[in-house]
Design a protein that fits this description.
With 563 residues, this protein is an alpha/beta fold. Strands 9-14-15-3-16-17 form a 6-stranded mixed sheet. The longest helix is centred in the middle third of the chain and has 17 residues. The two termini are 33 Å apart.
């Protein structure tokens, strides 16, 4: 079960947002972009035990405008299934639509202007789904009618598990209901329990009994211990008054209708399970542990789900990186990847450890448009095998940061990567404040791939290259043709700056031979990149013109995501 398409209208920060989530879908963007609102909209209609008009408040309407109908429309792949009657055919239900609107006129259910919730099952093209109106009868042709609401059995086919930023262990315990992760695991355990037999010793011999039967027998014995006089008195009062309220005589009709306290069934017992921990000899409910410890337990339940190879759930996770050490974040990203092989995982993140350039198709960029409405954008590049392999071959975890940038500055290698931040500091430019990420691509030949990747997300990009690079040594004609392709990328949010013929020669020309020679002698025995950084940091030297040109967009106004 997976979400194929998500459409949200007039919900909190979202005026209209439509996107196609991948099996592993990272929602990245700045604070207050609306990432959590997307997950909460899905959880609101699918993850709660019940959904009604009272599930929504005025603050859920875009702009606090009750006249703005909230729409949450979800398309599934494969489609959900509905069977009106046991003998009627099964029909596909690909789309569920929830609309919070208003009564247009006064009715028995509400006055004009009161909020109301409309639910509907739709075809992928928005068409009406027709189902049999009554049970099939021999000799009578079937009659059909529109499926005008969402029956509970359809909604129950979608197991949604929400893990919010509060990392409350309480919500993941079995008693929390359908969105509880541990509840889903124990449901499966209970199903297995009903198929299991165990050996018990009876009448001097070993016999096989159903595990459920043995459990209920032991529980009945335990219940006897509870039947102290006060317990029996309470049970008798409830029985007698219930019979009286139904018009029966408690003494004469006691056998007609019997009321008594019963036993747990096995699942009810599992739902009552709590997690306990013992420290220093003191036993305590795990829900009283600190947030970091509760987060560790919630993540452990998630990891257990993955190791048990459970399938078909939709996970909504806010900021999985919370409370996790960098190594644990990278390890947990691998867990997310494995879980998404048989489930769907949508998560928000601010961590470059939880996204990957080679898997760029799993990233959705979330931002506010000029009207301050939340928008979701995916890459326009086709994630074919050759491109993915190239990105994987050149993989560097630091490059993952480009997904979080407002502007990306692409450079060939370490010389520019080390020196340009020093020039920025001297010019009073704070690249972090304006959201600019500098990405070293591992050589000139990789620049086009990264320009295309960054541009495909609509992120402005500046590319800096040497016209004469060691990557093309002895291949002047090929290099000039390559340079031309880089120049052609100028425009539509892309700036191209060339250093002719290369960084060192341009710097030498600006400083003058004598000054440049003196600086190289001032920092002897160092690599080219380290020497370039120290020269850039030297306050006695002027900031070269090419550095000012590269950094110019970041000096006065903050760049924004291109439209």
């Amino acid at each position: 079960m997976a979400l194929r398409r998500v459409l949200i209208e007039n919900f909190r920060s979202i005026k209209r947002c439509e996107f196609n989530p991948s099996a592993l879908c990272a929602l990245v963007g700045e604070n207050n972009a609306g990432k959590s609102n997307i997950l909460e909209a899905i959880d609101l209609v699918l993850g709660r035990e019940f959904v009604s008009v009272n599930s929504f408040t005025l603050s859920d309407h875009y702009g606090f405008d009750p006249d703005a109908d909230i729409v949450i429309e979800l398309e599934f792949d494969p489609p959900l299934q509905h069977q009106a009657f046991k003998s009627s055919p099964t029909v596909d239900v690909p789309v569920l639509r929830y609309t919070v609107t208003q009564f247009k006129v006064n009715t028995k259910k509400g006055k004009k202007g009161d909020p109301r919730l409309e639910t509907s099952c739709l075809k992928s093209d928005g068409g009406t789904i027709m189902v049999q109106q009554e049970a099939p009868k021999k000799g009578k042709p079937p009659t059909f009618a529109p499926l005008t609401n969402i029956p509970p059995e359809i909604r129950d086919q979608v197991p949604v598990i929400f893990i919010g930023t509060d990392r409350s262990l309480e919500r993941q315990l079995p008693a929390a209901g359908r969105s509880s992760l541990l509840r889903r695991l124990l449901d499966d355990v209970n199903d297995r329990l009903r198929e299991t037999s165990i050996t018990v010793h009876e009448d001097g011999k070993d016999v096989e009994r159903p595990a459920v039967e043995v459990f209920e027998k032991h529980l009945a014995e335990a219940l006897k211990t509870l039947r102290i006089p006060e317990f029996q008195q309470l049970e008798a009062l409830l029985r007698n008054h219930s019979l009286e309220n139904l018009g029966y005589d408690p003494k004469r009709d006691v056998e007609r209708l019997r009321f008594h306290f019963g036993l747990f069934d096995s699942m009810a017992f599992y739902r009552a399970v709590r997690l306990l921990f013992t420290e220093g000899g003191l036993e305590m409910d795990a829900t009283r542990m600190g947030k970091g410890a509760q987060n560790a337990l919630v993540m452990a339940i998630f990891q257990a789900y993955e190791e048990l190879r459970k399938q078909g759930a939709i996970f909504l996770i806010e900021e999985p990186e919370m409370f996790l050490h960098p190594h644990r974040r990278r390890f947990f990203y691998q867990t997310l990847q494995r879980v998404s092989a048989a489930n769907q995982v949508l998560y928000t993140t601010h961590s470059a450890d939880l996204v990957s350039v080679p898997e760029f198709e799993n990233v959705r960029l979330v931002y506010r448009d000029p009207e301050l409405s939340t928008v979701v954008r995916a890459s326009t590049l086709e994630a074919d095998a050759p491109l993915r392999e190239k990105l994987r071959q050149d993989f560097d975890p630091e490059r993952n940061e480009l997904f979080f940038a407002r502007h990306v500055l692409l450079v060939e290698g370490d010389t520019e990567k080390l020196s340009l931040p020093e020039y920025a500091r001297r010019l009073g430019v704070n690249l972090d404040r304006v959201g600019c990420s500098m990405v070293e691509v591992g050589g000139k030949r990789n620049l086009p791939t990264f320009v295309d990747l960054v541009s495909s997300f609509g992120i402005p990009v500046t590319v800096v290259f040497d016209t004469d690079s060691s990557d093309f040594k002895g291949k002047e004609v090929e290099e000039e043709a390559f340079n031309a392709t880089l120049r052609d990328r100028e425009g539509d949010g892309t700036r191209v700056i060339e250093l002719d013929p290369k960084y060192e020669s341009v710097l030498r020309k600006e400083l003058g031979d004598a000054a440049y020679q003196a600086l190289t002698q001032k920092f002897p025995g160092l690599s080219k990149a380290r020497r370039a950084r120290l020269i850039a940091a030297d306050p006695s030297m002027p900031v070269p013109t090419f550095a000012k040109q590269i950094l110019e967009p970041f000096q006065e106004t903050e760049p924004a995501i291109a439209e």
